[in-house]
Amino acid sequence: MRRSLVVGNWKMNGTRASAESLAKGIIAGLGSNKAADIAVCAPYVYLPCVGDVVKGTPLALGSQNVADKPSGAFTGEISAAMLKEFNCQYALVGHSERRSYYGDTNESVAARFCQAQEQNIIPILCVGETLEEREQNKTFAVINEQLDAVINAAGITAFKAAVIAYEPVWAIGTGKTATDEQAQEVHHYIRQYIAAKDQAIADKIQILYGGSAKPDNAKGLFAMPDIDGGLIGGASLDAESFLKIYHSI
Ligand code: 13P
């Protein structure tokens, strides 16, 4: 039985004060949900203050990216070692907004993934197709490439300490969620793809769904056999709606 995981991706939103109060609001409503883990990926500059708020609570901390190099002359980048100092347990890598607006490639995403693992930070590898790719029946081919780049760089055993998030680009921030069946089909595909290389890892790895997940559609998505939780954007910015999603597990 896999443990579920719900992760909030705050993206570039909020203020220091709102980040702290959002984290406090989430902690206040956690209750005793034993079935699922929960984390928030805060903007880099709020990691220290949100880290202070979550210390000693079940709410884990994550970053939204991590550098593809360990240190050096890489202006504007934040290394995995720096994130570790602020108790980040997770780091998103390869979010579609990074891939489409900031030039992340499959290869640089794989390097970020490796850097996170070097510091025992669990990378959450984001994969997913655009609407155009889906309409051209390229969904699985795109996902193969996104997974292969990381498998080639890190090896399949690296997936023992990683999470995968399937985020169809056409569903992100659009209000157009994938149906339960559409999401399950791709999640199943990803698990089979990993299983062909290592069955035990495939059975254990958490595969999260992301893309307009909301309190009113989370239950159906989370009930699907290969969906182990969610990566939540907009709905994670409000403690009540994020908690409702978490408690739908
Ligand atoms: P939305 O939930 O706002 O669609 O964002 C999903 C996402 O990109 C999470 O990483």
What hetero molecules are bound to the protein chains? Answer: 1,3-dihydroxyacetonephosphate
Shape annotation? globular
User: Looking across the biggest beta sheet, what order are the strands in?
Assistant: 1-2-3-4-5-6-7-8
Measure the end-to-end span. 14 Å
Write structural notes for this entry:
- The chain has 249 residues and is α/β, with parallel strands linked by helices.
- The protein is built from eleven helices and eight strands.
- It has helices at 16-28, 47-54, 80-85, 96-101, 106-118, 131-135, 139-154, 180-195, 199-204, 215-222, 239-246; strands at 4-9, 36-41, 59-63, 90-93, 122-127, 163-166, 206-210, 229-232.
- The protein has an eight-stranded parallel β-barrel, surrounded by seven helices.
- Helix 2 (47-54) links the parallel strand 2 (36-41) and strand 3 (59-63).
- Bound molecules: 1,3-dihydroxyacetonephosphate.
- 1,3-dihydroxyacetonephosphate is lined by residues 9, 95, 167, 172-173, 210-213, 231-235.
Summarize the structure.
The protein is an alpha/beta fold and 249 residues long.
Which characteristics define this entry?
single chain, 249 residues, alpha/beta, 11 helices, 8 strands, 42% helix, binds 1,3-dihydroxyacetonephosphate
